[in-house]
Amino acid sequence: MKIKSVSEKTIAVIYGGKSCEHEISVITACLAKGYFRGRVLSVYFDRDNRAFLVGNDWTPARHVREKLTAPVVFLNGESAIGVLKRGRLTKLHVDAAVNCCHGLNGEDGCIAALCRMSSIPLVGSDVESSAVAMDKILTKTVLRQYGFPTVRGKDVSALGEEDILREAKDMRFPLIVKPALLGSSIGVGVAHSQEELLSALQTAFKYCPKVLMEEALTDFTELNCAAMRVDGKVETSSVDRPLTANELLTFRDKYIENNAQNSAHSDVSEDVRKEVSRLTAEIYIKLGFGGVIRVDYLYDNATSKLYVNEINSTPGSLAFGLWEGRYSRTRYGEALVDQAVADYRELQSYTYTFESGVLNGACGVKKK
């Protein structure tokens, strides 16, 4: 079989979806489309999870005002999508798909499952690892199981108000309250008292049925590091240090005001940065991630302890900013696609049939 060159491949960039992070997903996709050579198909899921083929030249704003006229269906087992236009279904082969969805109905394993059923290689993590990373409570549980350091926290999803306040007495204020199934700092609040805690919980439960309550560090440095596999080997990016004047990075900091601020603390040591890189690679391998991920850390300046905070299986802009200087945009995209295709081929090498004879009345199965 002839192996296609990069310029011959058809890449479907999948984004949008029914999620609080819908708009951020659109921005990620509009940037990511420039990473991939060959034929790019822009597959946009609207806020009701209906898929459409749109123009590669669409700006983020055009997704708000333009009419969606070309519905898309994923064709199970065919490595293709179908595009309906003027009453006619056109089948388009897809060599690889890129998951640019953030949040629920995309980053949580839904797009991975859709591509798996459609026999399409995926730039992104598989169903299982995506689901773990999406759920902050499950993430913390799995990380602890593997021995990774995390800040003390409690799952308060099934607790009533009195029980939560009782649990809070066993913890140290300030506390951070997080919707467990959201990202981009949406619905996250900091509480310095019981009254603030109840208000933060009300906000969090508005967005999500699962809520995590954590002890907040008051003197810390936030660090980010990305990981991906290139030619089968895990590589880690540079270590980034996002800054803010607030107690934690907010949605407004990240996407609206770009509130980078100077910190009163000197930069962390090279040893800490090396440990961040080491942990990031280990997390990528042990939790079975694919594509590119970004791991966020908290370094406690008072105790010199490093904690894993969150894992993003679909990081904003596919975390390219952490790799600049090492890869050009198109080389970055090429590396991601090559690894996705290699992973798919390995997955296909396993046996998916088991002839038991049960359907032929064997093995003691009686006919009625």
Question: In angstroms, what is the radius of gyration?
Answer: 22 Å
Pairing-aware structural class of the strands and helices?
Answer: alpha+beta
Instruction: Note the beta-strand portion.
Output: 15-25%
Number of contiguous helices: 10
The helix fraction, in percent, is 25-40%
Low-confidence stretches: 250-266
Q: What is the number of strand segments?
A: 16
Mean pLDDT: 91
Task: Write the element-wise H/E pattern from the N-terminal end onward.
Answer: EHEEHEEEEHEHHEHEEHEEEHHEEH
Can you put this structure into words, describing what you see?
The chain is an alpha+beta fold. 29% of the residues lie in helices and 24% in strands. The chain has helices at 22-32, 62-65, 110-117, 127-134, 136-145, 161-169, 194-207, 251-255, 270-286, 329-348; strands spanning 10-16, 39-45, 51-54, 72-75, 80-85, 88-93, 96-99, 122-123, 153-155, 175-179, 189-191, 211-215, 220-230, 233-236, 293-300, 305-312. The strands form four sheets. A five-stranded mixed beta sheet has the order 3-2-1-7-8, with helices on both faces. It has a four-stranded antiparallel beta sheet with strand order 9-12-10-11, with helices on both faces. Strand 13 and strand 14 form a beta hairpin. Mean pLDDT is 91; it is low at 250-266.
Characteristics of this structure?
10 helices, 4-stranded antiparallel beta sheet, 5-stranded mixed beta sheet, D-amino Acid Aminotransferase, Chain A, domain 1
Question: Briefly, what is this?
Answer:
By secondary structure, the protein is of the alpha+beta class.
Topology:
Blueprint: E1 10-16, H1 22-32, E2 39-45, E3 51-54, H2 62-65, E4 72-75, E5 80-85, E6 88-93, E7 96-99, H3 110-117, E8 122-123, H4 127-134, H5 136-145, E9 153-155, H6 161-169, E10 175-179, E11 189-191, H7 194-207, E12 211-215, E13 220-230, E14 233-236, H8 251-255, H9 270-286, E15 293-300, E16 305-312, H10 329-348
Parallel strand pairs: 1-2, 1-7, 7-8
Antiparallel strand pairs: 2-3, 4-5, 5-6, 9-12, 10-11, 10-12, 13-14, 13-15, 15-16
